[in-house]
Amino acid sequence: MSANFATTDLCHTIPLGWEHRVFFTRDVFGAGRGVWESILTGAAGEMPKVMVFVDAGVLSGNEELVGQIEECFSGLKGACRLAGAPVVMPGGEGCKNDWGAVERLWKELNDKGIDRHSYVLVIGGGAFLDLVGFAAATAHRGIRLVRMPTTTLSQGDGGVGVKNGVNRFGKKNWVGTFAVPAAVVNDFSFLRSLPARECRQGLVECVKVALLRDAAFFEKMESEADELAALEAAAVESAIERSAALHVAHIATGGDPFELGSARPLDFGHWVAHKIEPTSGFRIGHGEAVAIGMAVDLIYARELGLLSAADCERILRLLERIGFALYDYELEKRDATGHPLVLRGLEEFREHLGGQLTITLVTGIGSRLEVHEMDEAVVWRAVEELKLRNATTKGKV
Q1: What distance in Å separates the CA atoms of residue 159 and residue 153, rounded to the nearest whole number?
Q2: Are 233 and 192 contacting, i.e. CB atoms less than 8 angstroms apart?
Q3: Which residue, 51, 176, 252, 386, is most buried by CB atoms nearer than 10 A?
Q4: More confident residue, 80 or 293
């Protein structure tokens, strides 16, 4: 006896509405604590639990932070409650290489009974936000996350994004998730305690997003280059706020927030950066690596006639004026066959994008173009030019 099977194709669109909120604050655990009542909300009659994780590096210059957090939340009676004492863990890029840190985070969440009606509040630099965000996004298939970036790099770029990730197989962010945070809280008070090198890192992402989306912002940074180089608070905070706004606008309106396609304009300069950071043992910071990567791609675009020599020089000069070196000997490292290691970054970037290489190049200040192949010989000429530029401009910027 045979049975007849009818087939039915089903296709339903599932509309998802995400609200991506970024707050710019000061002293959020003191005079500005009122912001928490609008962020850490629960259902009627519900007082959600909050689990706080703190990047140990943030405590340098903020020694009283843990006590301030506990005092702040004890004063928010009826709104929310701490699930336990804030947990302090190592941050920095190294934390993303430690799978044991992910296991510890999951255990803390489990032991404290954190569920999908709770919140995870993470305070720290971009790497720590990535780590804790990954753990929160995978526990219970997603716990509400509030990010509090504490560096210029994370406040203006990574911390306001929707990606979480940890490193694996020597590759940045190979394991990760996309999850829109419940909120991002950019408290400028944390920037006061940053070492100068760390404070400078985020400025390169400001230049990057200005080149891609906002010529007027680029011109403003040019006009304030001396103030930015001196890390004057007003200029830095203004640049970070504008950078954050442009990054969020791109995520919300760019048409591909979860990167289903291969185009990632906000990763301009990153294919080089993602290679030289790990090969240097993270001696080179992310912002410093991006500055070098941008310089390579800018000269490459100029060599192909896509970017004018005048605009190329103008951009390179701004990066140098605000304190970035555009060359590092890491660019010249070679593998056992004599092939430059940095050029492997193109293949790794192609894999990361899902199979098709898509590199964003700047064609003018405020405009861009996507290409799907890179001439390695021209890339190498750009590296050699930067090496010569570095030798001839040292001490002259």
Answers
A1: 8
A2: yes
A3: 51
A4: 293
Predicted confidence band at 170 (pLDDT cuts at 50, 70, 90)? confident
Task: Please tell me the number of Cα atoms within 13 Å of 260 on its side-chain side.
Answer: 4
In sequence order, which residues have a C-beta less than 8 Å from that of residue 354 and are 6 or more positions away?
262
pLDDT tens sequence across 281-331: 889 999 999 999 999 999 999 999 999 999 999 999 999 999 999 999 999
Interval 190-218 mean pLDDT: 95
Q: Which two tokens stand for residue 50?
A: 């909050």
**What six digits make up the tokens of 187?**
């408290």
The whole-angstrom separation of Cα 197 and Cα 179 is 30
The per-residue DSSP string of 289-304 comes to HHHHHHHHHHHHHHHT
Q: Is the pLDDT of residue 193 over 70?
A: yes
Q: Say how far apart CA 275 and CA 289 lie, in whole Å.
A: 9
Q: Check pLDDT > 90 for residue 234.
A: yes
Look at the block and give the residue holding tokens 């999908």: 116
In angstroms, rounded to a whole number, what is the distance separating the alpha carbons of residues 354 and 166? 18
Q: Are 60 and 90 in contact (CB under 8 A)?
A: no
DSSP code for 231: T
Structure tokens at 89: 């863990």
CA distance 200 to 98: 27
Beta bridge partners of 371: 359
Label residue 380 exposed, middle or buried (CB < 10 Å: 0-12, 13-18, 19+).
Answer: middle
Distance of CA 275 to the CA centre of its chain: 16
Across the chain, mean pLDDT equals: 91
Q: What pTM, to 2 d.p., does this model score?
A: 0.88
- pLDDT at site 144: 95
What's the chain's length in residues? 397
